[in-house]
Write a structure and sequence with these properties.
The complex is a heterodimer of chains A (568) and B (319). Chain A is of the alpha/beta class and 568 residues long. Chain A is 43% helix and 10% strand. Chain A is built from 23 helices and 14 strands. Chain B is mainly α. A two-stranded antiparallel sheet of chain B has the order 1-2. Classes of the chains: A alpha/beta (568), B mainly alpha (319).
Chain lengths: 568, 319
C-alpha cells in the first residue's frame, strides 16, 4: 500500500465520518416511528386539551435553551405525559459557556435546532421565522393568550413576531409572596434589635446599620460588614441603579423616563447625592473595603456567612446565599427588602407590574421544516390550555399537590420536593416550561397559576421566625414592605430596548458603563475632601461620550411602543 | 551495500543548483505524499482563514452572503486608532508583556540552572514536579487563588502583618500601581516550572567533557554555570526569545479580565479585552478582525526584526 492510496483511504474515512454526522443531524426530525398508539389511556384522565388534528403521531423537537441547565431524566413523568398525549418529545441542548460565543458559532454555521430561546443576535441574523400567520391559522388558544399583547410582541425593526414571551402575559394581578426585584436589603436582626422601625429613607437605613455595626463588631466570629456594593462583570446594578429608585422611579436600567422622555441619570445631581452618601459611609468604615475588587463568588460567600448587614441588589441574584443561611438555621441573618427613597415626600416605586418579557421565550427557526413548524405551534397551542398549564405548574393532582375544597395545596413533603433539584429533574418539565408561553394569574377555578402566589401556600411556607417578624409590622408577607405597583407606563420598561449591536447607541452605552465602573468606585473610596474633584472629572468624561445617540435610540423605541402598543 | 550507502549520502548532500526534475519528484514521491496532509492542514487552517481578513474592511453581518456585505474601507481601523483608550490599552499590553517576558525568562533560566545543580535525582524531580504543576490549572482557578490570597484577610496580608512590615492590610487589587506586578508574579508562579523543562533538556545535551575539562582547569561551580551551562543553552534561549517577541502583543487575556475591576481599569485593560468589549460583545466582528490584523502585522514585523538582529550578531535564528 503506497502513500497515495493511504491518504485517499484517510480522506475517505474523514468524509464518511463527516457525512454521517451531517446525516444524523438532519435526520433527527421525523424518522422516529415508535410506540405511537400504545398506552395513551394512562394516568391522564384530567387532560382534555388534546389536539385532535395532530393525533398522537410521535415527533421530536430539537430545542436550544440559552441558559445552563440540566437534562431531565429519560423517564421524566411530565415529558412522558406530553409524549403520550401529543406525540411530542424534546431533545434539549443547554448553554455551556458564553451565550454570545455559542450563538456566534451557530449563526456563522447557520446551524439551528427547531426551536430556540430568543436573542437579539438571532433575530438580527434572520434565524427565526415570523409567527403571526402560523398562530392565526393554527393556534387559536395562543392567539387568545397573547391577544392583549399582540402589538407589543412585534419587533420594532420590521413589525414581525419572532418570539413568544415566556412571562408577563397575565390575566389577573396577583401578589406573589416572593419579591424578586431590586431593593436595599437589610438583615432582619438589624430591624429586630432596633425595635422593628419603619425605614423609609436612605439616611435612616444607614443610621441603623451604623448603630448595629458599632454594637456588634463581629458576627459569629467574622468581622461585621456594613454595606456591600457588587459590581462584577454584567452584574453591575448594585453600583449603577440605586439613584433612579431613590427618586421614586421604577427600574428602567440606565435611564429615568420622565413624561415619556428618557435621559441618563449617571451624571445627575441626585446620583451625586447618593454616591456622596456612600463616600461618607466609606469614610466611617461602613462599606466593605474589598467591595469593588471582589468577584461574585466572594460576594456570595460573604453574604452566606451572615456577617453582611446590607446591600443593594436584586433578590434573585443573592437568593442562593439566603438559602444557605436558612439551612444553617440563621433565619435572623436573612434579609428584608426595603424600598428606600431620599426623603419621605417621595413615593417608592420599586415593585412594578410584570411587563411583557420581550426578547425572551421560544422562537421557531428557519431550520424547522414547514410541517415541523405547524406541529410545534400546535403543540404550544395545546400546552397553553388550562389543564396542561396545571400539570406544568403544579404537577399531577394527588401526587404533587392536593385539592381541598377546590383549593390547590401542598403537603410539607410535596413542598420540600419542589425545592429538591434532583426530584425536579424527574418530575417537572421546568427546562421547557420556564421558556414556554404560560398562564399567569389565576386559573378559571380561582386557584393561582403559581404556588408561591396561592395565599394558603404563602402562609404555610413561612417559617416561625418570619411569622413573628411580620406580625410585629402587621404585614402578611415581605412584599407588603413595598408600595403597591401602579399601572405601568405603556412603553415601560426602557431597559428592554434593543440598542442594536455595533450602533453608536450601543457603543455610547458601553463607554458610559466603563466610565461608571471606573469613576464611581474611585469617588466612593476617595477621601471626603476629594469627592468633588473626582465627581467633576467623571462628569467631564461623560460629556465626551455620545450620550445623545444612546438617549435618542431609547426614545425612538419608546415612542414606537407608544404608537403601536396603545390599544386602539 | 557500500555503494548504496554512498549513493544515498551523495543524494542527501544539498546541491544549490540542483533542478527540480520529474525524476527527482518521482524519486521522492513517497516523501511528497507524506507531506500532503500537513500541507493541506496548513493551507486549510493557516492560510485559508486569511481570507477572513476581508471582514475588517466590511460592515460584516453574519448569515449574509459575501456579495451582500457592505464595504467600508478603513472605518474600523480608524475607530480603533482614534479611540481615546486605545493608546492606554496598547501601553498596558506592551508593559505587561515585557514584564512577563523578562520575569518569565530570568526566573525560568535561574530555576533551570539551580535544578541542574541538584545532584539528588529524587529532590530534583520533586521540585520540578511541584513547580510545573500550576501550569495545568486554568486561569480562572489561578485568579481565584490570587484574589483570595490578596484579600484583606488573605495569606499575603497575614504574613506581612505578622512580620510587622505593614500596620494594616493592603488592598492589593484596588491600586493600579500594583496590578502589573501582580500579573507578572502570577504568571511566574503558574509558568515557571513548565518553562524550565525546555532549558533542562537543552542542558542535558551539553557535552559532559566540557564540564570535565572545566574541572581540570579548576573551575568552581559558579564558573561552570557561567562558562559552560549558560553558553550551552544560549541557542535555545535565543530561539525562544525570538518566538516570544512575536507574541509581544499577547499579554494574556484571562488574568486581566478576571482580576481587573473598575479601580484598576486604567492599568488592566489589554487589547484583547478592548476587542471583546467593543468588537465581539457587540457583534462587531469587523472591528475584532481589524484588531487581529493589527496584532498580526505588528507581531510579524517584530519577529522579523528580532530575527534580523540575531542574524547580525551572528547568533542562532529562526527563519
Amino acid at each position: 500500500m503506497g502513500g497515495k492510496s493511504k491518504s485517499i483511504f484517510r480522506l475517505g474515512v474523514i468524509m464518511l465520518l463527516s457525512l454521517s454526522v451531517i446525516l444524523s443531524g438532519c435526520g433527527g426530525g421525523n424518522n422516529k416511528v415508535a410506540n405511537s398508539g400504545k398506552g395513551n389511556n394512562g394516568n391522564s384522565g384530567q387532560v382534555t386539551g388534546e389536539n385532535a388534528a395532530n393525533g398522537v403521531e410521535p415527533f421530536e423537537i430539537s430545542v436550544f435553551i440559552g441558559q445552563p441547565d440540566q437534562q431531565p431524566t429519560p423517564d421524566n413523568k411530565i415529558y412522558k405525559l406530553i409524549k403520550e398525549k401529543t406525540g411530542a418529545s424534546f431533545k434539549f441542548e443547554f448553554l455551556a459557556g458564553d451565550i454570545d460565543q455559542k450563538l456566534g458559532v451557530m449563526i456563522a454555521g447557520g446551524d439551528y435546532p427547531d426551536m430556540m430561546t430568543a436573542n437579539q443576535k438571532l433575530t438580527a441574523a434572520g434565524a427565526f421565522i415570523p409567527l403571526e400567520d402560523l398562530i392565526e391559522e393554527h393556534a387559536p388558544n395562543l392567539k387568545k393568550h397573547y391577544e392583549k399583547y399582540w402589538n407589543m410582541m412585534k419587533d420594532p425593526n420590521d413589525g414581525h413576531i419572532y418570539n413568544l414571551p415566556n412571562y408577563g402575559a397575565t390575566n389577573a394581578d396577583v401578589n406573589s409572596s416572593w419579591y424578586s426585584g431590586p431593593a436595599f436589603w437589610i438583615q432582619k436582626d438589624v430591624l429586630a434589635e432596633a425595635g422593628y422601625p419603619q425605614v423609609k429613607t436612605l439616611d435612616q437605613y444607614f443610621d441603623l446599620i451604623k448603630e448595629y455595626k458599632a454594637k456588634h463588631p463581629e458576627i459569629d466570629g467574622t468581622p461585621t460588614v456594613g454595606f456591600e456594593i457588587l459590581n462584577y462583570d454584567w452584574k453591575n446594578w448594585g453600583l449603577f441603579n440605586p439613584p433612579q429608585h431613590l427618586i421614586g422611579h421604577p427600574n428602567d436600567g440606565g435611564v429615568v423616563v420622565k413624561d415619556g422622555v428618557a435621559e441618563i441619570f449617571a451624571d445627575k445631581d441626585f446620583a451625586k447625592q447618593y454616591y456622596q452618601k456612600l463616600n461618607q459611609m466609606n469614610a466611617e468604615g461602613v462599606i466593605d473595603k474589598e467591595t469593588f475588587t471582589q468577584n461574585f463568588d466572594q460576594y456570595m460567600a460573604k453574604l452566606s456567612s451572615g456577617a453582611v448587614l446590607g446591600m443593594f441588589d436584586q433578590h434573585w441574584n443573592f437568593q442562593k446565599a439566603e438559602d444557605v443561611l436558612i439551612t444553617q438555621k440563621k433565619d435572623n441573618r436573612t434579609y428584608v427588602g426595603l424600598p428606600l427613597v431620599f426623603d419621605e415626600s417621595i413615593k417608592d416605586h420599586y415593585k412594578d407590574r410584570p411587563a411583557l418579557n420581550l426578547n425572551n421565550g421560544f422562537g421557531i427557526t428557519v431550520n424547522a421544516s414547514e410541517e415541523q413548524q405547524i406541529r410545534i405551534i400546535k403543540l404550544l397551542d395545546t400546552l397553553i390550555q388550562e389543564d396542561w398549564q396545571k400539570i406544568l405548574a403544579w404537577g399531577i393532582e394527588g401526587e404533587d399537590y392536593i385539592v381541598k375544597d377546590g383549593r390547590f395545596m401542598k403537603t410539607q413533603e410535596q413542598r420540600d420536593q419542589f425545592t429538591d433539584a434532583t426530584w425536579k429533574l424527574a418530575n417537572k418539565a421546568d427546562s421547557f416550561f420556564g421558556q414556554a408561553p404560560k398562564m399567569e394569574g389565576l386559573f378559571s377555578d380561582g386557584n393561582a397559576t403559581d404556588g408561591a402566589a396561592q395565599p394558603e401556600e404563602m402562609q404555610a411556607a413561612l417559617r416561625d421566625y418570619d411569622k413573628e417578624f411580620l406580625s410585629k409590622y402587621g404585614y402578611s408577607t415581605y412584599v407588603d414592605f413595598f408600595s403597591p405597583a401602579p399601572e405601568n407606563d405603556i412603553a415601560y420598561p426602557a431597559w428592554s430596548v434593543d440598542l442594536v449591536d455595533g450602533s453608536e447607541a450601543k457603543i455610547a452605552n458601553t463607554k458610559l458603563n466603563e466610565l461608571q465602573t471606573k469613576f464611581l468606585p474611585k469617588a466612593i473610596l476617595a477621601k471626603p475632601g476629594e469627592f468633588e474633584s473626582v465627581w467633576a472629572d467623571y462628569v467631564k468624561e461623560i460629556g465626551k461620550v455620545n450620550i445623545k445617540a444612546y438617549e435618542d435610540r431609547i426614545n425612538e423605541v419608546l415612542q414606537w411602543r407608544k404608537d403601536s402598543w396603545t390599544v386602539k | 551495500m557500500e555503494q548504496t550507502l554512498k549513493k544515498n549520502r551523495a543524494d542527501r548532500t544539498p546541491k544549490k543548483d540542483k533542478k527540480i526534475t520529474w525524476s527527482l519528484i518521482k524519486d521522492q514521491s513517497q516523501l511528497i505524499y507524506m507531506s500532503v496532509p500537513l500541507l493541506a492542514y496548513i493551507l486549510l487552517f493557516a492560510y485559508y482563514p486569511i481570507w477572513g481578513w476581508t471582514m475588517a474592511f466590511q460592515d460584516y453581518k453574519p448569515a449574509k452572503d459575501f456579495s451582500d456585505q457592505k464595504w467600508v474601507g478603513f472605518k474600523h481601523f480608524e475607530f480603533l486608532f482614534k479611540d481615546d483608550n486605545f493608546l492606554q490599552v496598547l501601553r498596558n499590553t506592551l508593559a505587561m508583556s515585557v514584564i512577563n517576558l523578562i520575569l518569565g525568562f530570568t526566573t525560568a533560566i535561574i530555576l533551570a540552572l539551580l535544578l541542574n545543580e541538584i545532584k539528588k535525582i529524587f529532590w530534583k524531580r520533586t521540585v520540578q514536579t511541584i513547580s510545573y504543576l500550576p501550569h495545568f490549572l486554568s486561569w480562572i482557578i489561578v485568579t481565584g487563588i490570587v484574589a483570595t490570597s490578596l484579600a484583606s484577610d488573605g495569606i499575603v496580608n497575614d504574613v506581612l502583618m505578622k512580620l510587622h512590615l505593614i500596620s494594616e492590610p493592603i488592598q492589593w487589587l484596588s491600586h493600579g500601581k500594583y496590578f502589573w506586578g501582580i500579573v507578572g508574579v502570577s504568571n511566574v508562579w503558574k509558568e515557571v516550572g513548565w518553562s524550565t523543562i525546555i532549558y533542562l533538556a537543552a542542558m542535558s545535551s551539553i557535552d559532559p567533557a566540557l564540564y570535565e575539562a572545566a574541572d581540570i582547569d579548576g573551575a568552581s561551580r559558579y564558573r561552570k554555570m557561567f562558562h559552560v551551562t549558560l553558553p550551552g543553552i544560549k541557542p535555545t534561549i535565543i530561539i525562544l526569545l525570538i518566538m516570544q517577541v512575536g507574541h509581544i502583543l499577547e499579554a494574556g487575556f484571562e488574568i486581566q479580565y478576571l482580576l481587573g475591576n473598575g479601580l484598576v481599569v486604567d492599568w488592566s485593560q489589554t487589547i484583547d479585552i478592548f476587542v471583546l468589549k467593543y468588537g465581539l460583545a457587540q457583534g462587531n466582528y469587523s472591528l475584532a478582525t481589524a484588531a487581529g490584523i493589527f496584532k498580526t502585522v505588528v507581531s510579524v514585523t517584530l519577529l522579523l526584526i528580532a530575527n534580523g538582529v540575531s542574524k547580525r550578531l551572528g547568533e542562532e535564528r529562526l527563519l
